[in-house]
Amino acid sequence: MEHITLSDGEWKIMKLLWTTPYLSLREITNALDEETGWSRPTVHVMLKRLIEKGAISLDLSGKFQRYYPEIEYRDIAPRETESFLNRVYDGSVGMLFTALTERKKLSEKDIAELRQILDEAEKKQED
């Protein structure tokens, strides 16, 4: 699969379609209205862009056109994460975590999660 890059707005639509596929334009607009305030024409333009990128498709079999994802979250999230890390932190995970810890106080749960992730990464490197 070719690399698909999503804008912030496209991510909002994709997250919605990943959790609830086969939505109509009206349903998507209504679902995102409170968070975004986007009009139907705005949502329609973004949906057209997502179709052009190959991220979603259109089901024409029913009374209403329904949109559904062609890509899965697990297929695009790692590449987007890596792209962000390279673009913003020159690929440095350490710089990312430093930025996160300086701006936000981590809870004990956050710290325990990070320790578990690091322990698992260390075990993988030993294998």
Principal-axes geometry comes out as: elongated
The structural domain count equals 2
Strand content: 5-15%
In CATH terms, the superfamily of the largest domain is: Winged helix-like DNA-binding domain superfamily/Winged helix DNA-binding domain
Q: Quick check: average pLDDT?
A: 91
Give me the CATH architecture of the largest domain, please: Orthogonal Bundle
Which runs of at least 5 residues are low in confidence (pLDDT < 50)?
none
Sheet having the most strands: 2 strands, antiparallel
In N-to-C order, the SSE pattern is HHHEEHHH
Structural class, from secondary structure content? Answer: mainly alpha
Counted by DSSP, the helix tally is 6
Distance between the termini: 30 Å
The beta-strand count equals 2
CATH class of the largest domain: Mainly Alpha
CATH topology of the largest domain: Arc Repressor Mutant, subunit A
| Helix residue percentage | 55-70%
Radius of gyration: 19 Å
Give me the side-by-side strand order of the main sheet. Answer: 1-2
